[in-house]
């Protein structure tokens, strides 16, 4: 499927941005940087705007979602915006009872514990998440990319396991024991649940990419709770299914043509087709990196528990990586943070390309000035 000619990738606005080219495997002179959870509670302008509006209502208000997405881009000068939304938005749009409880996270009205619960939930056709229901998402993305200009927007969705972890537990949990029990005691119900979640997330992500996002990230935040064997057998096929909804999105660009000898006149170019880049991220997933790449991502996001050179080695040295500043160091004295960031960048050099990020989200009590200083520091290197 070819993107609309007005899409920021197809029109050329973002096609040669540092972040898109790094995701496509081309090492950049200046390391591109953005932060997971850069939009949100660390910013006073966010806290002010959110007063009186629930999290999920804010996500579904296109003007508000767009403004919140833009706040950290304006303030920090990061290389990309990350769309302000949540992994449970497709559940909400499909009619599932879900709230985000401040300080806790997603809470599911009717936890999905048995095969009968799975059958009831999956009787909701994922195609119910049609263009009409996704309109607030497409509108928010459209408004945002119109403001962002040459700065790419990253779209995202939750991976099926992370969504299932909330659906089965009913809320946040430490080791996702109930979810893992269901996975083994009823593999059929489990895979029906994951495939259903994959289709919802896939449609949610596709809507963002078609409306103007220049890259997509699948968040499997809790996949680190799984063994490699369980992940590969019981989870990865559904993550691949989620990614397959957006795997075929392509656009055309005019790129320098090395094959044609330069004569007089403008340097020769040739039309090339490129894929919309896809990132796959999880926390505590050092053992799963290669399997996460195999699920159909171009880039693997790495958390702070494994150094990037080792992560790259596990990926065969051929896969662009994203990460992995330890978020805890954002509150450390600047020289400590600076040394850590230099180490992360040095280790990232062993991958074909590197996009700097945190190993997980920005902690809510982070001093935003630190993030601004960090971006300026990296861009000046
Ligand atoms: O800046 C960004 O990264 C963009 C927006 C974003 C949010 N959630 C906004 C949000 C993204 C990419 C997410 C994804 C998300 N949501 C994940 C995967 C990423 C990760 O952090 O691992 C997960 C697991 C969720 C589920 C969820 N939603 C959690 C765990 C929480 C935090 C609960 C809390 O209060 O600590 C939320 C709520 C949420 N999502 C907030 C934000 C800014 C906080 C809402 C608030 O302001 O109260």
Automatic annotation (TrEMBL):
InterPro entries xrefs: UROD/MetE-like_sf, Uroporphyrinogen_deCO2ase_HemE, Uroporphyrinogen_deCOase
UniProt keyword terms in alphabetical order: Cytoplasm, Decarboxylase, Lyase, Porphyrin biosynthesis
Protein family per UniProt: Belongs to the uroporphyrinogen decarboxylase family.
Keyword flag Endoplasmic reticulum: no
Residue span, Uroporphyrinogen decarboxylase (URO-D) domain: 32-41, 154-170
A GO biological-process term: protoporphyrinogen IX biosynthetic process
UniProt function note: Catalyzes the decarboxylation of four acetate groups of uroporphyrinogen-III to yield coproporphyrinogen-III.
Residues at the site labelled Transition state stabilizer: 86
Lineage, opening ranks: Bacteria, Bacillati, Actinomycetota, Actinomycetes, Micrococcales
Name of this chain's protein: Uroporphyrinogen decarboxylase
Keyword Nucleotide-binding tagged: no
Pfam families tied to this protein: URO-D
Gene: hemE
Pathway recorded for this protein: Porphyrin-containing compound metabolism; protoporphyrin-IX biosynthesis; coproporphyrinogen-III from 5-aminolevulinate: step 4/4
Subunit relationships: Homodimer.
Cellular component GO terms held in the UniProt record: cytosol
A molecular function GO annotation: uroporphyrinogen decarboxylase activity
Chain segments annotated as coiled-coil in the UniProt record: none
Annotated residues for binding of substrate: 37-41, 86, 166, 221, 360
Reaction catalyzed: uroporphyrinogen III + 4 H(+) = coproporphyrinogen III + 4 CO2
Its EC number(s): 4.1.1.37
Cellular localization per UniProt: Cytoplasm
């Amino acid at each position: 499927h070819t993107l609309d000619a007005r899409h920021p990738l197809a029109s050329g606005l973002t096609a040669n941005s540092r972040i898109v080219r790094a995701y496509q495997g081309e090492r950049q002179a200046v390391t591109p940087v953005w932060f997971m959870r850069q939009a949100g509670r660390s910013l006073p302008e966010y806290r002010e705007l959110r007063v009186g509006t629930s999290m999920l209502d804010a996500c579904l208000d296109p003007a508000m979602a767009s403004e919140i997405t833009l706040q950290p881009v304006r303030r920090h000068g990061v290389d990309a915006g990350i769309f302000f939304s949540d992994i449970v938005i497709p559940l909400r749009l499909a009619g599932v009872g879900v709230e985000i409880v401040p300080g806790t996270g997603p809470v599911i009205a009717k936890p999905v514990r048995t095969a009968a619960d799975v059958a009831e939930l999956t009787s909701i056709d994922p195609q119910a998440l049609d263009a009409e229901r996704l309109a607030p998402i497409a509108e928010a993305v459209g408004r945002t990319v119109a403001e962002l200009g040459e700065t790419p927007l990253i779209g995202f969705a939750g991976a099926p396991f992370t969504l299932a972890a909330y659906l089965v537990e009913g809320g946040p949990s430490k080791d996702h024991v109930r979810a893992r029990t269901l996975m083994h005691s009823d593999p059929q119900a489990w895979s029906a649940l994951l495939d259903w979640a994959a289709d919802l997330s896939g449609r949610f992500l596709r809507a963002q990419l078609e409306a103007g996002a220049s890259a997509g990230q699948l968040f499997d935040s809790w996949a680190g709770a799984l063994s490699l064997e369980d992940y590969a057998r019981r989870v990865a096929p559904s993550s691949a299914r989620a990614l397959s909804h957006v795997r075929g999105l392509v656009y055309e660009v005019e790129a320098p043509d090395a094959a044609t000898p330069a004569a007089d006149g403008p340097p020769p170019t040739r039309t090339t087709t490129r894929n919309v880049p896809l990132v796959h991220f999880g926390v505590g997933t050092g053992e799963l990196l290669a399997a996460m790449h195999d699920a159909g991502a171009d880039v693997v996001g790495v958390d702070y528990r494994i150094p990037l050179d080792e992560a790259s080695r596990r990926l065969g040295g051929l896969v662009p990586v994203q990460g992995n500043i330890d978020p805890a160091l954002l509150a450390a004295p600047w020289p400590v943070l600076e040394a850590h960031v230099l180490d992360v960048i040095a280790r990232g050099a062993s991958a074909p390309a590197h996009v700097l990020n945190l190993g997980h989200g920005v902690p809510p009590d982070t001093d935003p000035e630190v993030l601004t200083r960090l971006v300026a520091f990296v861009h000046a290197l």
